[in-house]
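Hi R.,

Here's the chain you asked about this morning:
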Amino acid sequence: MRSKSVLVISVLTLSLSAAAAGPAATAVPVAKPIDAANFDPAVRPCEDFYQYAVGGWVKANPVPADKSRWGSFEELADRNRAVLKTILEETSAKTDWPKGSVKQKVGDFFASGMDVAAIEKAGTKPLEPWLAKVDALKSRGELPKLLAELHARRLGAGYGFFVMQDQKESTRYLPMLGQGGLGLPDRDYYLKDDAKSKEIREKYLAHVAKMLELLGEAPEAAKAKAAVVMDLETKLAKASRTRVELRDPERNYNKTSVAALASEAPGYDWKAYLAAAGVPGVTELNVRQPEFAKAFAEMAAKEPLDSWKAYLRWHLVRATADLLPKRFDEEAFAFYGRTLNGVPEQEERWKRVQAMTDRSLGEALGQLYVEKAFPAKSKERMKALVENLRAALKGRIEAAPWMGAETKKAALTKLAAFGVKIGYPDTWRDYSALPVSRASYFENVVAANAFEVKRNLGKIGKPVDRTEWGMTPPTVNAYYSPTMNEIVFPAGILQPPFFWADGDDAVNYGGIGVVIGHEMTHGFDDSGSRYDAQGNLKNWWTDEDRKAYDARTALVAKQFDGYRALPDQSVNGKLTLGENVSDLGGLKISWEALGKALGKDPNAAEKIDGFTPGQRFFLGYANVWRNNIRDEALRVRLNTDPHSPGRYRVLGPLSALPEFQAAFGCAAGSAMVMPEAERPGIW
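And the predicted structure, written out as tokens:
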């Protein structure tokens, strides 16, 4: 599901979508579950079901000027944001909330972000102490201490350091060291030689130089330092694993001692870093990419100190551009928004500040959101849906002809152990130790970052908190955590078009039902299937069954490799494999659950608005994935996102489903009928 800012979650989570950054300015009304206006009647469902089901919507809904993508996720996020805007305006308008209360912190945080005059007046003063620390470096031996200080405030550079569950001992926490330190979205942006990649690198160089100029560098000096930054980051990129390689949990598990790390990655004082990070007692950690750690340590010892200073100055201003005066914020948007993603206009400020409030005080804001926007009946109906889907998956596992009895037994044990979280946490996060005032937006964000890092590192030596959530309540998304072995559905997604509290079973099973099935299937996709019922990275498959499973998933990878999303770029079937397998599984499971809920075949005769339950199921599913996306943003997603574009999340799995073909009477040879020999047939 999306790439989140809290790294400790991102490495755990398999989500529904990369999703929804931001909606248009005005909330859109909630339409009917199945709306004929969304159709393209000129296209037959058996030839291109995506175009048939949502082609009318696609034509009528161009991407808003301040967005890179517009679809169901963004529409729902828009409605959620309208609620959040009211909450934030009400709380920030009042200045006498009890000090330390949720409303005081949320209101003052939002108010500080909206105080543009104060931000302009402060200029770069909030950043200058950090720039001074960089300028004061006298030797490369001081890098560990400074990087620890920066990481403690999420001012990331060099590499990532965080705490998460030990993937082979899920009852305990383990510090993690991982690759990072890049300013472009992915290593391949530095290494590919195609014309588009070269163009982006040239514009990135110019952007880095411009940002350094804004910090006071002379133009020529800024250009020279930008070239140094590019050189350093390119070396880091060469040492980094690809996105596909990062999907292999076994390769990313390399638990070792701190002493061994110092020996195997010499040139950088790892012990000094840990001491400065406030965890001097750490004796072991997981070095997720050992080759990167070794390369970084070598660079720390050999690259000129002035190169590191240029690099750190750049990453400081990059990390804080949206907290600084308008000239910094606009330049950052010019590159990351306009150049990389093709977005003509920046979002209104309140939306950007709302997003930062959610990132910084997510459960405090979520508490206020839930009070206003989440009815209790939604949670109860979701519980019933989840158990219906669990029963359906149990039946699919038991009936799988390619899976032996021993593996089935372990799979059923894992399924029975699935934890479920719906709506919002039972206990809200305590923010009492986080100071928030109206005085400085910059300081509020940095303090919130420091609070979160301290909370994360403070897990070392404590029991695993199984009540913790990896998403905030207003989030339009869902996820599966392999180490927790749980599926999680925030309140934000439990609304149309995913979930209709009063809707018919067919559209709900085609929407949120498939979402539930999707997250459940993540427990058995090519990555999640390597974790057992307790969330441990442990092989519970027979060799024969794993071989049979891999042969089937290979068909999925091959299918999606064949989808050309841009004239010069296809979907990466290996990068998107886990999500594509989960879409297919989610559809099969939810279809079966719908049949049980109806007590009959969903393709039975009774109709609503002219469609059988089976047809409404698939139409509901297609509506979830309707979207328009700018070519530039699509290119970024094809390079970095483990989710396929929405169009292919409809065409791909449905063409492999006999149930779909029966629902719409698709004959062999139709575009939406995959030859039987090519069908993966997993669940």
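Residues 7-80+375-426+464-678 form a domain with the Collagenase (Catalytic Domain) fold (CATH 3.40.390.10).

Let me know if you need anything else.
M.
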